[in-house]
Write a structure and sequence with these properties.
Strand content: 5-15%
Helix content: 40-55%
CATH topology of the largest domain: Hypothetical protein af1432
CATH architecture of the largest domain: Orthogonal Bundle
Strand order of the largest sheet: 8-7-6-5-9
Oligomer: single chain
Structural class: alpha+beta
Shape: globular
Number of domains: 3
Distance between the termini: 25 Å
Length: about 350
């Protein structure tokens, strides 16, 4: 399916999904072929975009369906727009400016919908090399991984926007830390105490606005609590830690392992998955950890594989029914239009290479 603006629709296109619930439109079915101008007008009046199935569409040669590359470009624009707003808000918070974080909620909500509607494209963007190891870049990576994880295990849709807010603002408490601390490879006991209290600081900052839900605040507060009780800030253990905090903890660990940090280089996605598995049942919830690894597939996101034709590809997403989406491993960061992913099956892979050419 391809996401397309209602203003780019044409008679003959097959709509597979609308951008809103069944009760919010006058359409009896949400999967149909556009046959009349009246249907086109209703779609333009009631929706912003729809998902079109190119294989079922019959349109004139003059009309071109948007490619996967165009979908990737559109999603990249959404991510960049959100990142710019985060940069602005985070800088103001660090300076002590009285700025309302709640103004980010509509933008986070729109990005949440985008990730859930076209998860593969957003995971692809997440796998591209990001030269800026900033808090906002890290937050967006965690956000996308977390929503993909939540979607995989079937978290209820009505909770996902609140959880998306928690995922993208999970480390907002770190903004009150001195910049030297964030960039230091060695920290003192006093500095360690600050770090262990940053989830509570973040919750207090957000709670002042009386806008963020209890689910959002609780998920943020406990995202560093470990299943064996060794985490912080409250030393909770087992099921005393909320489900979504346990999920966010797993996601944050994977994202951190696969990102270059001041004191530790990124590990390969396969190694990161192994580390998660090693900690399953101790620091991490075993059942959820296995579900997270399952969502990544046999070849975790970022793995470089060689196919039977001898070419090397990087895994960018996984779907149980379809297989692995991959792109050529020789990606050029300066290219504006990225190559369209292709889908392969595990049987197509001849070798898993311990080379992480795409940093997550």
């Amino acid at each position: 399916m391809i996401k397309i603006s209602v203003y780019n629709l044409a008679i003959g296109m097959h709509v597979s999904k609308l951008d809103r619930s069944w009760l919010s439109t006058s359409f009896f079915r949400h999967s149909f072929k556009i046959k009349t101008q009246k249907q086109l007008n209703r779609l333009k009046a009631e929706c912003d975009f729809v998902f079109v199935d190119p294989d079922k569409s019959v349109v004139s040669n003059a009309i071109k369906l948007p490619s996967k590359a165009e979908a990737i470009k559109e999603a990249s624009n959404e991510v960049n727009k959100t990142k710019k707003l985060l940069v602005n808000h985070f800088k103001n918070i660090q300076k002590g400016v009285n700025i309302k974080v709640r103004t980010l909620i509509p933008v986070i909500g729109a990005l949440t919908k985008g990730v859930l509607d076209d998860t593969e494209v957003y995971l692809y963007i997440t796998m591209l090399r990001d030269k800026h190891n900033s808090l906002e870049a890290k937050s967006i990576r965690v956000f996308i991984f977390f929503l993909a994880f939540a979607k995989h295990i079937g978290v209820k849709k009505n909770l996902l926007e609140e959880l998306g807010v928690a995922a993208i603002l999970h480390d907002i408490g770190m903004l009150s830390a001195p910049q030297e601390l964030l960039q230091s490879a060695f920290i003192s006991k006093e500095e360690r105490k600050f770090i262990e209290n940053h989830p509570q600081i973040g919750v207090e900052l957000l709670a002042r606005e009386n806008t963020f839900s209890e689910l959002t605040l609780t998920t943020i507060k406990h995202h560093h609590e470990n299943f064996d009780g060794s985490g912080y800030p409250d030393g909770l253990a087992g099921r005393d830690i909320g489900l979504y905090s346990r999920m966010l903890n797993i996601t944050c660990m994977y994202e951190a392992l696969t990102r270059n940090r001041v004191y530790r280089k990124a590990v390969y996605p396969t190694e990161a998955a192994s580390i998660l598995a090693f900690n399953a049942g101790s620091k991490l919830d075993k059942r959820l950890t296995l579900k997270f690894i399952e969502a990544l597939g046999i070849y975790p996101l970022g793995s470089v594989v060689t196919l039977k034709n001898g070419k090397m590809f990087t895994v960018i997403s996984f779907d149980k029914k379809c297989g692995y989406s991959v792109v050529p491993s020789e990606l050029n960061d300066s290219d504006e239009v990225k190559p369209e992913p292709i889908v392969i099956k595990p049987k197509d892979v001849t070798q898993l290479i311990n080379v992480n050419s795409v940093a997550t």
